[in-house]
Amino acid sequence: MTDSSARTDQKAQLNVQMLVYAYTQGIFPMADPDTDQIYWYSPDPRGIIPLDRFHVTRSLRRVVKGGKFAIKSDENFTEVMRQCAAPRPDEGNETWINAELISAYTELHTLGLAHSVEAYVFDPATGKEILVGGLYGVAIRGAFFGESMFHRSDLGGTDSSKVCLVHLVNHLRKRGFVLLDTQFVTDHLARFGCVEIMREEYLSRLKHALEVETSWWPFEVVEG
C-alpha cells in the first residue's frame, strides 16, 4: 500500500529527463491503483537501508550460500517489472506499477540507469532456467533507489526476492554505492535493518551520494 500523505498534488509527466531529475530531488512516481493516474511522491520520513547495518538472518544466509538460485542482473528487466506489477492478494490485489511506468523504466534501463537483480531455477521439464524472483530500481551515481521486488513460490521461488536483496546489498557495497533508498519502511524491510529518517537528513545523504562516482557494472555475485 502506498502512503497517500507522501503524494504531491502534481501529476507525473513521464520522460527520461524528468525521471532522472525527480530522483535527484528525492521524488519518485507511482500510479494510483484506483485511477491509474501517476503522481509524484516524496515521503517524510523516508525509508533507507543503511548499507553498513544490513541484517541477514542465519536461515537466509544458509539459503544464499546453498546456491539454490542462479543470480543474474539485467537479463530480463522488463519481465521483472511485470512480475512486480502483478496484483498481490496480501495487498488487496492493488498495484502501483502500470504500463506507462513499465515503458518509462524500460527506457531508463536501456540507458543504463535502471537495473534488476534476478533469481532463476532450472526447470528439468524444459531444460531452461525460469525466473522465480527479483527486484529492480534506479542507479544514479552512488545512490540506488529500490522500487519493487517479487517472488514466485508456485515456481519454487520461496525466499528468492530476499536472496536478490542480499546480493544487491553486497553488490552495492563492492561497487562503492553509499545510499540504498527504499522509499517507505515495511515490516518485511525492517527485518533487514530498514529505518526511517527525516526528509532533511535524506536529502543530505542523497546530495552526498550524487557526488560519488561509481557504476553498476560489472555485476558479480558476491557472498558476504
Q: How are the elements arranged and paired?
A:
Elements: E1 7-11, H1 16-24, E2 28-31, E3 38-41, E4 46-48, H2 58-66, E5 70-73, H3 77-85, H4 99-110, E6 114-123, E7 128-140, E8 143-151, H5 160-175, E9 179-183, H6 187-190, E10 195-197, H7 199-209
Parallel strand pairs: 8-9
Antiparallel strand pairs: 1-3, 2-3, 4-9, 4-10, 5-6, 6-7, 7-8
Helix pairs in contact: 3-4
The best one-word shape is globular
Integer average pLDDT: 91
- The helix/strand class is alpha+beta
CATH superfamily: Leucyl/phenylalanyl-tRNA-protein transferase, C-terminal domain
Encode the helix/strand succession as letters. Answer: EHEEEHEHHEEEHEHEH
User: What is the number of beta strands?
Assistant: 10
CATH architecture: 3-Layer(aba) Sandwich
Please describe the biggest sheet, giving its number of strands, its sense, and whether it closes into a barrel. 7 strands, mixed
- CATH fold group: Aminopeptidase
Low-confidence segments, given as residue ranges, are none
Strand order of the largest sheet: 5-6-7-8-9-4-10
Instruction: Please identify the top-level CATH class.
Output: Alpha Beta
